[in-house]
Specification:
Order of helices and strands: HHHHHHHHHHHHHHHH
CATH class of the largest domain: Mainly Alpha
CATH architecture of the largest domain: Alpha Horseshoe
Shape: elongated
Structural class: mainly alpha
Number of strands: 0
Largest sheet: none
Helix content: over 70%
Distance between the termini: 105 Å
CATH topology of the largest domain: Serine Threonine Protein Phosphatase 5, Tetratricopeptide repeat
């Protein structure tokens, strides 16, 4: 009698275990159904119900000692939870809760999937999680909830740290809420990953680091990086020139520019920047001259003479810059001011005519 009873108990245990393994099969079938339904147009509520039922199957499977070590139980759990996170655009809290379930399931699936049989499902779940976070970020951004959008975009970059577009999105969002350190961090990451328009990002990062973050050391380092990559960019060359001028190291600025001009004399940006090294000294003297008492004519005239000397030195470089690049209207603007200062009416009118034509 005991043997019969024991056999019956063993049969019952085996049946229970098979039933639990059957939950994995149910989950697989439910996933196939969910994918088919996903290709059809149906209410969000219906889609979420189908996915929740499949997730419930995996709940039952991982609750059993026999089936909780099956990698499929966890990979399909990750698929269902990540999909719920992706499609539930109305209930963010539910989406985030399923996000967590999916992440935990992915970790467990990778741990158990020693043969790599579930590699494809795991990758799909990871991609879906990344897309879910991106969608939440976009929804939040469109609602002008930039703080949440930045949080979600940062989640996306953490999940997919090689996609430059996501780092740019995070940087743009951070700028909206004036979180400049975050903007700089994300744009720098995009640059380092080879973003196609890294030149523009450098401009944003450099100007923000100097003007908003107020970090001259970091800004200078970034500027040097940018010039190394984009030596012909007039903004970078001009800014470096400004830095040296502000430090009172005009000679260093002119030394570097002279080397660049010697290497490439047809580069308009270098010619323009060299002109600036003289022109900005003249502007600085103008400020000092304006502060002089009108009665101190000798002192006034002495500064004027010095100003004129700097302007005369700037003039040929600006002319050369415009000659090399007729689209460089900034050179024309400075030339017009110089000719006005020198009371050169002929060249003033000619330059003004060129400038007006360029602006049309």
């Amino acid at each position: 009698m005991k043997k019969v009873l024991l056999s019956m108990l063993l049969l019952g245990a085996a049946t229970y275990a098979n039933a639990q393994k059957g939950e994995v099969s149910k989950a697989k079938n439910a996933w196939a159904l969910a994918k088919f339904a996903g290709a059809q147009t149906q209410p969000l509520e219906t889609t979420l119900k189908t996915l929740a039922e499949g997730l419930k199957n995996t709940d039952n499977a991982i609750a059993n000692e026999k089936s909780k070590t099956m990698p499929e139980a966890w990979s399909y759990r990750a698929l269902f939870a990540s999909r719920i996170s992706f499609v539930d655009s109305l209930n963010v809290q539910n989406a985030l809760a399923n996000d967590k379930i999916a992440e935990e399931a992915i970790v467990k699936a990778k741990e158990l999937d020693t043969k790599g049989a579930e590699k494809e499902n795991i990758s799909e779940a990871e991609l879906t999680l990344s897309n879910a976070a991106r969608n939440r970020a976009i929804f939040a951004y469109n609602k002008k909830d930039y703080k949440s959008a930045l949080e979600f975009f940062n989640q996306v970059t953490a999940k997919n740290p090689t996609d430059t577009a996501n780092f740019v999105n995070a940087g743009v969002t951070a700028k909206q809420i004036e979180n400049y350190p975050e903007m700089v961090r994300n744009f720098k990451s995009a640059i380092q990953l080879g973003y196609k328009d890294g030149e523009s990002l450098y401009s944003e990062v450099i100007s923000t680091t100097f003007e908003k973050v107020k970090d001259t050391v970091a800004g200078t380092a970034l500027l040097e990086e940018a010039i190394a990559k984009y030596p012909e960019n007039p903004y970078f060359v001009g800014m470096q020139t400004d830095l040296y001028i502000k430090k009172g190291n005009i000679a260093k600025s002119q030394e570097l520019l002279a080397k660049l001009i010697a290497k490439d004399g047809k580069n308009a940006a270098y010619q323009y920047a060299m002109g600036d090294t003289y022109y900005k000294q003249a502007l600085d003297l103008q400020g000092k001259r304006n502060a002089i008492d009108a009665k101190k004519k000798k002192e006034f005239d002495a500064i004027t003479t010095k100003m004129t000397g700097f302007i005369d030195q700037a003039l040929p470089y600006y002319k050369k810059a415009y000659e090399l690049d007729p689209k460089m209207t900034s050179a024309l603007e400075n030339l017009k001011i110089i000719y006005a200062f020198k009371d050169d009416k002929v060249n003033y009118e000619a330059t003004k005519k060129l400038l007006d034509a360029a602006k049309q």
